[in-house]
Design a protein that fits this description.
Number of strands: 12
Helix content: 10-25%
Largest sheet: 6 strands, antiparallel
Radius of gyration: 15 Å
Strand order of the largest sheet: 4-10-1-6-5-9
């Protein structure tokens, strides 16, 4: 409900050859703009997700949610779950997609509209890693 995250299927992503395709049409072994090799594509049912919103990141709009990790040069790793209401808006029920899409790449990241996003595994592992450290501290101490 909270750990999954992805992008609306019409989100455009640039391939190495200069073409832009919908994220829903990206295939395994595609090479993205900055040389990221797509290892896997992920389809996520939205029926159990906590929210799907329109996010504004670096003056670009993205539809997805709830857990997308991205990188900002001056701030480091950022999470869509922490974006202010000013930077995101709830979508009307009829505007929400039944499926979100995400990618797994050999570089653990990829770019959409100039924003560097962590891939599906990176987004999940970021939270699991923090949780596992807390759990280990509780067990050890």
């Amino acid at each position: 409900k909270y750990l999954d995250g992805g992008f609306e299927g019409n989100t455009m992503i640039e391939l190495e050859d200069g073409r832009s395709v919908k994220i829903s049409d990206v295939c395994v072994n595609d090479v993205l703009r900055f040389g990221e090799n797509v290892l896997s594509t992920v389809k996520i049912s939205t029926s159990n997700l906590s929210c799907i919103k329109e996010f504004k990141i670096n003056n670009n709009k993205f539809i997805g949610g709830p857990n997308l990790l991205y990188f900002e040069d001056d701030c480091g790793i950022q999470k869509t779950v922490k974006l202010l209401d000013v930077q995101c808006k709830e979508l009307a029920e009829n505007d929400k997609s039944d499926v979100l899409y995400h990618l797994i790449t050999d570089k653990s990241t990829f770019f959409i509209n100039g924003t560097k996003f962590y891939d599906y595994n990176g987004s999940i592992e970021y939270f699991l890693d923090k949780d596992s450290k807390k759990l280990l501290k509780k067990i050890i101490f």
